[in-house]
Amino acid sequence: MTIRVLRSRRVTRRVLSGIVTVGLAWMIACTTLPRQAAAQSSREAIDNTLPKIVKLFGAGGLKNLAAYGTGIIISPEGHIATVWSHVLDTEQLSVVLNDGRRFRAEVLGAEPQLDLAVLKLDAENLQLPYFDLADAVAAEPGTRVFGFSNMFKVATGDEPVSVLHGVIAARTKLTARRGRFEIPYAGPIYVVDAITNNSGAAGGAVTTREGRLLAVIGKELRNSDSNTWINYAIPIGELREAIEQIKTGNYTRPPEPTEQEAKPRRYSALDFGIVMVPDVISRTPAYIDALVPGSAAAEAGLQPDDLVLFVNDELIQSTRMLATELGRLEADDTLKLIVRRGDKLVSVELTVPKKATEPEK
Fold it and tell me: Rounded CA gap, 55 and 157, in Å?
């Protein structure tokens, strides 16, 4: 009887041991297989997204202005969406695809108020992989995302761009500045818990872990209130309509702010001793017509016929844009100008005077 009891206990222990082993194996499979499936899904999403990201090479290279950026392909014919920046201010704008092919591109149109530009590759019959803007989605805080961009120019040929993973931390309105200047876009953004906004990253894509397009990575900016760098992206929903209109050539820019809305425009070019050419058309180039003898601008070395290209790193397209940027200056700010003189770029710095010209009434 004793022997039978011992054998029964041994059998019971073996059965229990087998049950525990099977149970542990099942638990491991339940945790491991989903992780493997998720990793495989993420890998596929990255592989499918990389061919839709392009590297941009254009103007820059002076005074820490990067001569490269990122864009996303938005049509099989080679339309590209990116941010509006100084990189595009060249007739030799170059776009490099994921497979290393290089094309020239032209700027079809831009909307600085949205920090948006749309390009078109100078090629036909491309049939490229692209983001369908109609399939773009929105996201809530807590959504896990990927950020694709050519930050720090890690890719120049067929090398893949950088991929970061992070989380949508918040959806809020943008209150930010570049240097001392408030930027024009103040719409909704995604704040990303990842260091996405690096040099050259602007114009890249933020997607879900499944590869669906969410937003376009913005420029390097600081929060207006905390003076800290912001990692953010502009939702496609804020850009889609303007992108489609620019693609079709039907885009109409919002009206310029009225003089009353644009006030206070306290500082003007004349406060620095600069006389600009007459503003006779909507986009009169910002050429210097003359300099007041003995003025700060004259002593800094500016000359008649210099073309103002940048004011504190902001691209200037017309005398009106120059007037707008100068009107945002505060007393004792530093005014940095980059001008084109013949075939050369010249940089000068001026101190903003304490007293400005009274605005016209």
Answer: 9
Least reliable range by pLDDT among 58-62, 108-112, 305-309, 340-344: 58-62
How far apart, in Å, are the Cα atoms of 35 and each of 38, 40, 280?
Answer: 5, 8, 64
Query: How would residue 262 be classed by pLDDT, with cut points 50, 70 and 90?
Result: very low
Q: What is the DSSP string of 198-242?
A: -TTTTT-EEEETT--EEEEE---EEETTT--EE-EEEEHHHHHHH
Cβ atoms of residues 118 and 83 within 8 Å: no
What are the backbone dihedrals phi and psi of residue 242, each rounded to the nearest 5 degrees, phi first? Answer: -65, -40
Q: How many CB atoms lie within 10 A of CB 145?
A: 24
What H or E segment, with its residue span, contains residue 22?
helix 2-49
- The alpha carbon of 240 is separated from its chain's Cα centroid by a whole number of angstroms, namely 15
- Asked if 175 and 186 touch (Cβ cutoff 8 Å), the reply is yes
Q: What percent of the chain has pLDDT over 90?
A: 59
- The predicted model gives 224-229 an average pLDDT of 80
161 vs 117: CA distance, rounded Å: 20
Compute the CA torsion angle 98, 101, 107, 108 (nearest 10 deg): -90
Quickly count: other Cβ atoms within 10 Å of residue 123's Cβ. 14
Query: Which of the 8 DSSP states describes residue 323?
Result: H
Query: Does residue 259 register a pLDDT over 60?
Result: no
Residue 330 predicted with pLDDT over 90: no
Strands 176-178 and 181-182: antiparallel
CA distance 288 to 295: 14
Distance from C-alpha of 163 to C-alpha of 161, rounded to nearest angstrom: 7
Give which of 191, 220, 222, 188 is closest to 203, Cα–Cα: 220
State the Cα–Cα distance between residues 19 and 251, nearest whole angstrom: 69
| Distance (Å, whole) CA 322 – CA 106 | 24
Structure tokens at 14: 């073996």
Q: What pLDDT digit, counting tens, does each position of 289-311 carry?
A: 999 999 999 999 999 999 999 99
Q: Measure the CA–CA gap between 113 and 30, rounded to whole angstroms.
A: 50
What is the residue-averaged pLDDT of the chain? 85
- Name the β-bridge partners of 191: 170, 232
Top-ranked range on mean pLDDT: pick from 109-118, 221-230, 348-357 = 109-118
